[in-house]
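User: Some background: our group keeps a shared notebook of sequences we're curious about, and every so often someone picks one and asks for a predicted structure to add to the entry. Today it's my turn. The entry only has the sequence so far, pasted here. Could you supply the structure so I can complete it?
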Amino acid sequence: QVQLVESGGGLVQAGGSLRLSCAASGRTASNYGMAWFRQAPGKEREFVAAISWSGGSLYYADSVKGRFTISRDNAKNTVYLQMNRLKAEDTAVYYCAADPNRYYSGSYVPAYWGQGTQVTVSS
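Assistant: Of course. Here's the predicted structure to add to the notebook entry:
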């Protein structure tokens, strides 16, 4: 069992930056593939970024490539999402996800979800 707790969301102006964090519990969490998804009002949840268990493989949605960076610190069981040059269309609830597939790329529904953190970008 893995529990995920996100933090770092908030209100930011367009062009600004935010860093989201996701703390994972469980001794095996460092062996899991991790990802971020987001869900805007009235829209389906969509994939944002994923990182393999070692951090050696990274995956990004086209809409965030070049602006967002996913990383992880396995010593702290924490995954990060650095978001730069934010746009109004990035406004959403951001969810952390974990999957026992070490190379999880966000292509299917993950095994575990966090509770989500709100990111609002004002234009």
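Suggested note for the entry: The radius of gyration is 13 Å. The CA atoms of residues 30 and 90 lie 28 Å apart.
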